[in-house]
Design goal:
The complex is a heterodimer of chains A (200) and B (170). Chain A is mainly alpha-helical. Chain A has two domains: 49 residues; 109 residues. Chain A is built from six helices and no strands. Chain A is elongated, with a radius of gyration of 26 Å. Chain A starts with a helix and ends with a helix. Chain B has 170 residues and is mainly α. Chain B has two domains: 80 residues, RNA polymerase sigma factor, region 2, helix turn helix motif (Rna Polymerase Sigma Factor, Chain: A, Orthogonal Bundle); 74 residues, Arc Repressor Mutant, subunit A (Orthogonal Bundle). In chain B, helix 1 packs across helix 2. The N and C termini of chain B lie far apart (56 Å). The chains are: A mainly alpha (200), B mainly alpha (170). Chains A and B meet through helix 1, helix 2, helix 4 and helix 6 of A and helix 1, helix 2, helix 3, helix 4 and helix 5 of B.
């Protein structure tokens, strides 16, 4: 209790809750947390497997020794390397717990939101890389493409471009959402800092 | 997997400090449905953060810190505009609807509205004071100096008084 009777009266009113039947569903919460942890591990494993697969295909293509194989292999390796670099770049944000002081947690949240924005914007670069790769593929394989069924080749290119466009749309949406959140976080931090400066 | 100690600590936070977490969540969110989600989020954040608890502060201080951090995050994530939903605690009344119970609930409702209307720095010190935290504990939760807490408390009291008087005016 404080020594201020006004605060004490308010504190009594604040804590004077009616009896409640509302309880926390702890077992359900534990299940959700375990599921989330499992999904995170599976996603990380899937990323590594995908990188290894693409890397393996690229190396085997290069091992054939044909000019097409070497170009395709180098392109594949460059793409894997690019993807991994982006993944590491966006993971720069320190994963701090929410147990810091409010001020520190707000700053940490700002860092994480900036990281999320970087991740969203990295999609633009990946899309540009993917378009360049598809163009290179069409250019290098144009002779071979003429030999295969034209419909299949067009379908493959269109499918690849659709994936790129969808990724781009997702990136724009998340970029916008996180940018709005960042603006609100920075506003709150400014509010807290102004308050502290006035108190100094 | 968490250790049995952590699980026991988590159960302690949920059972002993659950009401405090509910009230802190209510100071950040008026909509009952969204508020329940926020409460769950806070407890999940406590669960994740518990392994980093080294016992420097009490579990209660630790839980309050996590709750405020999630509350701030919630405001940043969702509060595009101030919530206009009327306070509906959604907490069933088991007590008889006697006049004094009604009056107490109304007073609490007015207080909750007034707290929610405070600017963030004042709201945080107010909620922690109402939760019976000492000024040094509040300084520890918020990461500000004791002097800042004292000044904010003085301002918060004046702002709270004004907001409650405004609500009482017809």
């Amino acid at each position: 209790m404080t020594t201020d009777p006004e605060w004490n009266a308010l504190a009594d009113a604040w804590r004077d809750e009616p009896e409640t039947t509302e309880t926390f569903d702890l077992p359900r919460m534990r299940r959700r947390l375990k599921t989330r942890a499992l999904i995170a591990r599976l996603k990380a494993a899937a990323d590594i497997i995908l990188c290894l697969m693409v890397g393996g295909i690229a190396i085997s293509a290069m091992a054939r020794g044909t000019p097409t194989g070497v170009v395709m292999g180098l392109g594949g390796l460059a793409f894997v390397l690019f993807g991994m670099t982006v993944a590491l770049w966006v993971a720069r944000a320190p994963w701090e717990t929410r147990a810091e002081t409010v001020d520190a947690a707000l700053r940490s949240e700002i860092i994480q939101t900036r990281s999320a924005i970087r991740r969203a914007r990295s999609g633009y670069y990946l899309a540009a890389g993917a378009i360049a790769f598809i163009t290179l593929t069409i250019f290098v394989l144009r002779a071979d493409l003429n030999a295969v069924d034209d419909g299949d080749a067009k379908f493959s290119v269109m499918l690849s471009l659709s994936v790129v466009v969808a990724s781009l749309a997702w990136g724009i949406w998340t970029d916008r959402r996180h940018s709005q959140k960042l603006a609100r976080l920075e506003k709150m931090l400014a509010e807290l800092e102004t308050s502290e400066n006035e108190e100094d | 997997m968490k250790s049995p100690d952590t699980e026991a600590l988590f159960d302690e936070v949920a059972s002993l400090h659950g009401p405090m977490i509910r009230r802190i969540a209510a100071s950040y969110e008026a909509d009952p449905e969204v508020r329940r989600e926020l409460q769950q989020d806070i407890l999940m954040a406590v669960w994740r953060a518990l392994p980093s608890w080294r016992g420097e502060a009490s579990v209660r201080t630790f839980a309050a810190r996590v709750a405020h951090n999630r509350g701030v995050d919630h405001v940043a994530r969702h509060a595009k505009a101030p919530r206009t939903v009327e306070l509906d605690e959604g907490l069933p009344l088991d007590a008889p609807s006697a006049q004094d119970v009604v009056e107490r609930n109304q007073q609490r409702e007015r207080l909750m509205r007034a707290v929610r209307a405070l600017p963030l720095p004042l709201r945080q010190v107010t909620v922690l004071t109402l939760e019976d935290f000492s000024p040094s504990e509040i300084a520890d939760v918020l990461g500000v100096g004791a002097n800042a807490v004292s000044i904010r408390l003085t301002r918060a009291k004046a702002a709270l008084r004004e907001a409650m008087q405004q609500q009482e005016r017809p």
